[in-house]
Every structure is written in structure tokens, then in C-alpha cells.
Amino acid sequence: MRLKIVALALVCTLPACTWVHMAPGASAVTVVQGVPAGCEKRGEVEVSVKDSVAFYDRNALRVQDELETLARNEAPGLGADTVQALGPPADGSQRYAAWKCK
User: Fold this and answer.
1) Does some domain include residue 18?
2) Disulfide check for 70: which of 16, 36, 47, 88 has CB 3.0–4.6 Å away?
3) What's the pLDDT at 5?
4) Are 30 and 101 in contact (CB under 8 A)?
5) Is 12 exposed, middle or buried, given 0-12, 13-18 or 19+ CB atoms closer than 10 A?
6) Which residues have a Cβ under 8 Å from the Cβ of 10 and sit 6 or more positions away?
7) Any residues with CB less than 8 A from the CB of 55 and at least 6 apart, and which?
8) 54: containing domain
9) Is residue 10 part of a domain?
10) Contact 91/67 with Cβ under 8 angstroms?
11) b/e for 47-71, b at 16 or more Cβ within 10 A?
């Protein structure tokens, strides 16, 4: 019985978990919706996170936020200061274009 209570408590706290943290330099990276004007494309990145844990599907907005954070974390390594989603998230993955705008 005690194991069931612990398991239930764990499942209830999973939605509050944030597994992705902003890397140094990533906070200066801008996220844009459309293709930015006057910018140089520096490449593309594909990022992914767990969108479900066992039988539990994670909150879609939280997954999308973590994917965006991962893309921002990758941008400085490409010499980029702006990222743009190339499509919607699918199965915990998403592609982003990285741009040098400033």
C-alpha cells in the first residue's frame, strides 16, 4: 500500500518537473516566428525531450518550452543569436533554424 502512495505522489509531481535548464549565453538568443529579415542563416538544429514518462503524457506546453530552451542552448555554438521553429513539435522533437541577426 505504501508503494502505491509513493508511486501516486511521484506521478502527481512529474508535471512540475523541468528537465531542461538555460545554458550560459542562451538567454541572449531571441526566438522568432517568421523568417527574420536581414539575417544570415547559420544552420539548423533538431532538439528532443521526453514527451511521455511510462504511461503519463507530459504537458504539451511544457515540452514545447523545453524544446525552445534546448534550441536556444544550441544557438551560441553555431554563432547564432536568433532561432526560428521550422515546424510544430512531434513526438518530443522539433527542428529550428539558427540565424545571426545582430
Assistant:
1) no
2) 47
3) 55
4) yes
5) exposed
6) none
7) none
8) 29-100
9) no
10) no
11) bebebeeeeeebeeebbbebbbbbb
CATH number, residue 95: 3.30.110.70
Rounded percentage of the chain residues whose pLDDT exceeds 90: 65
* Owner of C-alpha cell 523545453: 66
Residue 29 backbone dihedrals phi, psi, to 5 degrees: -80, 130
Q: Is residue 22 part of a domain?
A: no
Q: What is the pTM of this model?
A: 0.79
Distance CA 43, CA 16 (A): 33
Count of the separate structural domains present in the chain: 1
Q: What is the DSSP letter of 24?
A: T
Please indicate, yes or no, if residue 41 is contained in any of the structural domains. Answer: yes
* pLDDT number for residue 19: 72
